[in-house]
Amino acid sequence: GRFTAGIVTMRGELLDRTRADVDPDVGPQSHFASLARIVGEQRDRAREQHDVRVRAIGVACAGPIARNCETVSPATVPSWRRFQLRQHLRELTGLAVFGDLDAKATTLAEGWLGAARGAQSFCTIVVSTHVDGGLVLDGDLVDGATGNAGNVGHIIVEPGGRRCMCGARGCLESEASGSAIGSITGRPLTEPTYDIMRRTGRLVGRAAGTICTALDLDLVVVGGDVALGFAATFFNAAQEEIDSISRVGHGAAARVTPARLGDNGPLLGAGAVGIRGLRRPRA
Description:
alpha/beta; 40% helix; single chain; two-stranded antiparallel sheet; 8 helices
């Protein structure tokens, strides 16, 4: 895992970025110190190199989180368990801080600048080491009861299938995530067989078709290094599965399309979370 900080303008330009690796063997405050260092670096560059004023901090974080990243427990940062990230960043910067799940942030960015630009309703599925997602309905990002909406990795796609970390069997996460594929095949993700690329696409399409039928969606944006790495073989299989299961009563099936923002998605998403926070009326 790594921390990344960047400068995103109100128009969605990514002006700068810095990364820091996450050391798995240190405590929570050491993790925060390394994040604080790159945040400080980016604030200095904003002023000195780009001549822009930083108005807010936007955060995109792996889950689970409490709403607005008040507390975060990301799998990628081992010692952060209910870590008070928002308060720490507010004390560090003196700025307004707005936070959300990384997949939801990426969803905002794809709707703003990427493959779902102009769409009022769509879902995003990110197929990487894990499987996450986000939902936009009638122009609004769906938060859910705890802020963790879009947890599509736990839709069951193979009843009685492989045991998932959540305790269920046959979740999309346990069948089609990068870590699942590695343990199923014993091969590196860079050397997949044709069959595994087709199977992964089909299972993601199965989850996507279910979501589209339930929510009346016509667009699914799929990103993450697994999906984008498996390319056309994956996307064709996903589209075939959606066509076969979610067309009933709807006419045309939903269209599946690759995410466009790639590695910049989460950073642009964090910017989008910050902008969304600034524009919302304060409670």
